[in-house]
Design goal:
By secondary structure, the protein is mainly α. It has a single domain (7-114), classed as Uracil-DNA Glycosylase, subunit E (3-Layer(aba) Sandwich). The chain has helices spanning 7-12, 14-17, 20-35, 47-51, 88-101. One of its GO terms (molecular function) is uracil DNA N-glycosylase activity. This is Uracil-DNA glycosylase.
Length: 121
């Protein structure tokens, strides 16, 4: 399994990536992907760390459980691809943003645009 990360993250995580446990972990994950249906697609496991350089990160949102339905997980926490029904956790996030910031509830649950420093409109 090739880990796709922005170079800044590779540098920040170098000690962990080079640690023996990390190779064991990637071997385990690779085997799970070979033997089972896993989400997100393997190429998107570290999508957040590949798209945003370390020095540009302002906020990190961490979820408890990954989405487990076909087409849901796109590699970003709570995000789903365009056209996918919003899972309950994402609905709650959007409700809070609507209430707190008076932003309209978005049609798309794809949060990729949050990575480019633009709050949804």
């Amino acid at each position: 399994m090739s880990i796709k990360l922005d170079p800044s993250w590779k540098e920040m995580l170098r000690e962990e990536i080079d640690a023996p446990y990390f190779e064991e972990l990637t071997d385990y994950v690779r085997k799970e992907y070979e033997e089972h249906t896993c989400y997100p697609p393997g190429s998107k496991i570290f999508a957040a760390l590949d798209r945003t350089p370390f020095e540009e990160v302002k906020v990190v949102i961490i979820g408890q459980d990954p989405y487990h339905g076909p087409g849901q997980a796109n590699g970003l926490c709570f995000s789903v691809a365009d056209g996918i029904a919003h899972p309950p956790s994402l609905i709650n996030i959007f409700k809070e943003i609507t209430t707190d910031l008076q932003k309209p509830y978005p049609k798309s649950g794809n949060l990729e645009r949050w990575q480019i420093k633009v709050f949804y409109s």
